[in-house]
C-alpha cells in the first residue's frame, strides 16, 4: 500500500489524489482509499503487475463453487482463436480477471465493446487445484497455473450480447 502522511485537510488530499490518479480508475473501483492512524492508504484492488504481491494477504480466497453464481471473462472474437489454442493468459498482470456477473448487471463494470463471454467451470477449476480469489470490488482473480487458465476449465462460451453458444472442446 502506498502511504501519504496526513498534512492538513484529509478531504482535500483525498480529492487531490483522486484527480491525480484519474476518475476513470476510481469509478472502476480498481483501487481503495482508506485512512489508518492519520495516513491515507491507497491499495490496488486488482490489476497488479508486481509479481511479489501475495494474493492470500490482499484477497479473499474462494473455497467452494457454491460461493459463485457466475464467473465470466469478457473478451473479443478476434482473441478467441488464440484463447482456444492456449487458454486465458494473465499477460503482464499477476491475475486473470473474471466478473461475478454479466455486463448488464448493475455492479459489473466492463468494456462496452466486448463480444464474447467465457464462463469458468469454478467447480472443475477448484478440483484441478486452481486458486480463485475475490477482490473488495467483487472481481474474481486467479493466477491460474503458471499464469494460464486452461481451456479444460471453461464451462461454456457465448457471444455477447445475443448469448448464442460458441462451440469449443474443453477435453
Automatic annotation (TrEMBL):
InterPro entries: Ptrans_KptA/Tpt1, RNA_2'-PTrans_C. Pfam families: PTS_2-RNA (PF01885). Keywords: NAD, Transferase. GO terms for molecular function: tRNA 2'-phosphotransferase activity. One of its GO terms (biological process) is tRNA splicing, via endonucleolytic cleavage and ligation. Signal peptide: none annotated. Transmembrane segments: none annotated. Belongs to the KptA/TPT1 family. This is RNA 2'-phosphotransferase.
Amino acid at each position: 500500500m502506498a502511504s501519504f502522511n496526513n498534512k492538513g485537510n484529509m478531504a482535500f488530499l483525498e480529492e487531490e489524489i483522486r484527480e491525480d490518479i484519474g476518475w476513470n480508475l476510481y469509478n472502476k473501483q480498481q483501487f481503495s482509499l482508506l485512512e489508518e492512524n492519520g495516513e491515507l492508504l491507497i491499495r490496488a484492488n486488482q490489476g497488479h503487475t508486481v509479481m511479489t504481491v501475495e494474493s492470500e494477504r490482499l484477497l479473499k480466497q474462494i473455497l467452494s463453487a457454491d460461493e459463485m453464481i457466475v464467473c465470466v471473462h469478457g473478451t473479443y472474437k478476434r482473441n478467441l482463436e488464440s484463447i482456444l489454442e492456449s487458454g486465458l493468459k494473465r499477460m503482464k498482470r499477476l491475475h486473470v480477471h473474471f466478473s461475478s456477473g454479466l455486463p448488464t448487471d448493475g455492479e459489473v463494470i466492463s468494456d462496452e465493446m466486448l463480444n464474447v463471454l467465457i464462463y469458468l467451470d469454478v467447480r472443475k477449476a477448484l478440483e484441478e487445484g486452481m486458486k480463485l480469489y475475490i477482490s473488495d470490488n467483487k472481481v474474481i482473480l486467479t493466477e491460474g497455473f503458471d499464469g494460464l487458465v486452461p481451456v479444460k476449465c471453461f464451462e461454456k462460451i457465448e457471444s455477447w450480447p445475443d448469448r448464442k453458444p460458441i462451440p469449443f472442446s474443453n477435453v
